[in-house]
UniProtKB/TrEMBL annotation:
It comes from Chlamydomonas eustigma. This is Hexosyltransferase. It comes from the Eukaryota. InterPro entries: C1GALT1/C1GALT1_chp1 (IPR026050). The keyword Secreted does not apply. The keyword Signal applies. PANTHER family: BETA1,3-GALACTOSYLTRANSFERASE, HEXOSYLTRANSFERASE.
Length: 392
């Protein structure tokens, strides 16, 4: 495993020289990672160090065999590798009473970004961006730096393009949902169709059986914080309910420090304690951000440009937070194809995806053991850096 981490470090330095032109704007010292986890998943945390090299990390856990000094709830322990561990015990089960989330550790996971913010904000070396995800989420740091190069860290952002949503009266929720209430940043990517119209939702376009039929909805473009009122304007003008979308925790969320500065920790914690039976920590975070008045900002990468059949509309093949085609793009047999001068079609798409994808959910539950999941995180990173070296 140590050899894999060393390989990732070498290739990452290479890519920062040839690909990431914004590295001077947001160096790694501007980032922190926040990872909620639990007892028995230490191998996954170890495997995630491959992508976290040089990134200060706040790990919220109920305990750790590697940190025997944990003795009580809410204790913080500084460890090696730039890691800070915070002990937050699981919720206690009481007969007949539900947890706040689906699992006893969901409350810990939901509060961890705000505890991390308080921890690092009190230090002389603060941060600008927070990378938050499950313990089996991988962030591709060169791509993250490139992506954030067009965004202002002073704007309150909760960034993701992978949102669960179900309009009231429609079928089951799914993700990524093109009609989830959200905003686009004013700094849209170059390949987008330009500044979207501030469209409303025509009543004739609404169908309870087909959520994709709301062809008139375009999220508003804002240069400041995405508030609930702004994100919901089109829905309310069409006399439709506007509910909070849910982040996909495995895809991760990127928070600007500015957003967490505006959300009061005590108020957020009181909101979490009012919610019972949420589907997960990502839902808890989403609901309480919404209650605080903030909605998610979609990077806008999946907006299709002129000439595309879905011009001006998002297409799920082009999301950058946990795109489901990532595993195909990282296959070894695609590497040489991407190096070829004849790389086109699906090969060209894979090449674009490699240079654009921000995060990937490795899904530990798909592996037989935590050790196997940790190895999968390492393998994902080494495959990414090898492919990027060929694609550069």
């Amino acid at each position: 495993m140590a050899n894999v981490v060393l390989l990732c470090i070498v290739l990452k330095l290479f890519l920062q020289d040839v690909w990431v032109t914004e590295a001077d704007l947001y160096p790694e010292s501007d980032f922190i990672a926040v990872i909620p986890t639990c007892e028995g998943r230490e191998e996954i945390i170890s495997g995630s160090r491959a992508w976290r090299q040089g990134i200060r990390t706040f790990i919220a856990t109920n305990a750790s065999r590697h940190l025997p000094s944990f003795k009580k709830d809410n204790q913080t322990v500084e460890s090696k590798d730039g890691e800070t561990y915070r002990c937050i015990l699981d919720e206690k089960y009481t007969s007949g009473v539900r947890f706040h989330g689906a699992r006893p550790g969901d409350l810990r996971s939901a509060i961890s970004p705000f505890l991390a913010h308080a921890h690092y904000s009190n230090k002389s070396e603060t941060y600008k961006w927070m990378l938050y995800g499950d313990d089996d989420t991988v962030f591709f740091i060169p791509n993250v730096i490139s992506f954030l190069g067009r965004l202002n860290h002073m704007v309150p952002y909760a960034l993701t393009d992978n949102l669960w949503y179900r309009r009231r009266g429609s079928n089951s929720p799914y993700h990524p949902h093109p009609d989830a209430p959200r905003c686009y940043p004013c700094a849209l990517p170059e390949h987008s169709s330009g500044q979207p119209n501030q469209g409303s939702i025509p009543a004739e376009a609404v169908s309870n059986s087909d959520p994709y039929s709301i062809l008139g909805y375009t999220p508003p473009t804002v240069c400041e914080a995405c508030t609930v009122d702004v994100a919901c304007k089109a829905y309310r003008e069409a006399n439709m309910d506007c509910d909070a979308p849910r982040a996909h925790g495995g895809a991760g969320i990127i928070f600007s420090k500015a957003l967490l500065d505006f959300v009061d920790l005590n108020e957020f914690q009181r909101c979490l304690e009012r919610v019972w039976g949420a589907s997960g920590s990502d839902t808890l975070i989403s609901l309480c951000l919404w209650e605080a008045g903030y909605a998610f900002t979609d990077p806008g990468v999946w907006i299709q440009g002129p000439g595309h059949p879905h011009e001006g509309r998002p297409h799920p093949h082009y999301i950058i937070f946990d795109n489901r085609r990532q595993s195909t793009a990282l296959r070894a047999d695609h590497f040489q194809m991407m190096k070829s001068k004849t790389c086109s079609g699906s090969c060209a798409y894979d090449k674009w995806l490699l240079k654009s994808m921000v995060s990937m959910h490795v899904a530990a539950r798909a592996h037989p053991t935590s050790a196997a999941a940790g190895h999968a995180l390492n393998k994902t990173l080494s495959s990414y850096y090898r492919a990027m070296q060929l694609a550069s």
